[in-house]
Amino acid sequence: MSVEHGTTCPLQCPQRLLCLSSQNFIQAKRSRKRDAVLSFVSRRLKGLLSGLSSVGPKSSQVSNSIQPRASSGSFRQLNQAAKPFKTGRLQVTQLHSLYFEVYGNPNGQPAVVFHGGPGAGCYANHARFFNLNHYKVVLVDQRGCGRSTPLGCLEDNNTAALVADFEALREALGIDRWLLFGGSWGVTLSLAYARAHSHRVTGIILRGICLMRPSEIQWMYGGGAGNLAPAAWSSFTADLGKRELKNPLAAYHKRLTSPKDANSRDAAAKAWMGWEMSVGFGLSDNLQRWNGQKWDPAGSQPIKPPSPPSVLVNGTQHAAQPSSKGSPRAASAMQTPAQASASSSNSSDAGSSSSSSPAPGSISTSVAQAMLECHYSFNNAFLEDEPLLEGLDPLRSIPCIAVQGRLDFVCPPRTAYDLHLAWPEMELLIVPGAGHSMYNPGIQQELLKATDRMRFLAQPQSGIDRRQVPVQRARSMASI
């Protein structure tokens, strides 16, 4: 037996020297301590990871980091469809009458939808962005569109008048304060209303940020967006003369608001809506191929021999047609709100259908929308004297969540970023890979989350100024 002299034996053996057996004892003791430490660390790590996974979905709603793109199967679907519990009309002037619907819980938290366009009208599906067990949701067709009358009327139709209409509707429905939910043009109108009546607003949810500034209008109708959809832009400007090409918006304004006849007006409206749908919903992710006659998704069809130049021009016009595989909003853009709800899971919620067979001398809702969009765009939304980015101080204490598609070519992210700079308390979410549609899976999911969160954020705050409270900063702004 070998021994190591000069060391006390922990086994208290007679030799009181560290023998080989005592060395084994010490090594075993150290090994047990190491195993115990490793086991403790492992249990702690598992506990921490389990805790993180249990709060992951909840905390991701307020995370400042860029969120990974979820698979299509993991996106939230719209809430269940329901019928309105109240419908009606509000006579706001001797000329204009507004159609409205109210969905959800009569005693729920009030919310109002500001639809886009201008002139697009409200759809029953808009109410499905809210949990109708908790919300009381008001949908209203703005002046001159949808089921409001007279359809397509431009007289007394401006932003200040629309703001006054919403305030009159709030009073008529006996609502003290409400949540604002607006997309695209609805962003402009929501902010204009909130600026004028901030004490009536509990919170704001925005999608596809649009402020109707001259630079934004020039982008859409001055050729900027045409660089992204050149075939569609060629179709949009095909019937304009050389002088008109210098200002396509003015040319269309004349054709839509002071037409020679109804046929020329309707042709201009068709071209206008075709251009808008092409930019907003018609830019396909599929490989596109010119087959000698027209553009189509590349497939197995053989390429035909080149056609004469005259056919190529007609083929370019075909390319401007919007994709039938776009969003639900794109597919129903030419329908009335009643028709759109009928094509969803809420067909019993139909109503009048003014665009299916217009009466002689009347106009369709799509023509009315083109007229209203052109009317507001040509006049810079009647906001030149009061740009929306100026005078935002009354809004900065109001909770606001804004959702913006990174690939939105109708309302590019630059506008969202400018609003963020002017309103740093606002929470801004940039959705990767998403365009303009509120039905894009990523945008739809963030809007559903926003309405859920606003049930708690949009409560009376007893005079608390949110500018003095830690706020949610914009997500992924550094990479815009």
Automatic annotation (TrEMBL):
GO terms for cellular component: cytoplasm. It is an enzyme of class 3 (hydrolase). Gene3D superfamilies: alpha/beta hydrolase. InterPro entries: AB_hydrolase_1 (IPR000073), AB_hydrolase_fold (IPR029058), Peptidase_S33 (IPR002410), Pro_iminopeptidase (IPR005944). Residues 112-438 form the AB hydrolase-1 domain. It is found in: Cytoplasm. It catalyses: Release of N-terminal proline from a peptide. The keyword Cytoplasm applies. Its EC number is 3.4.11.5. Residues 53-73, 290-363 are annotated as: Disordered. Residues 330-363 have a biased composition (Low complexity). The keyword Transcription regulation does not apply. It comes from the Eukaryota. GO terms for biological process: proteolysis. GO terms for molecular function: aminopeptidase activity. Pfam families: Abhydrolase_1. Keywords: Aminopeptidase, Cytoplasm, Hydrolase, Protease. Residues 61-73, 313-326 have a biased composition (Polar residues). Belongs to the peptidase S33 family. PANTHER family: PROLINE IMINOPEPTIDASE. This is prolyl aminopeptidase.
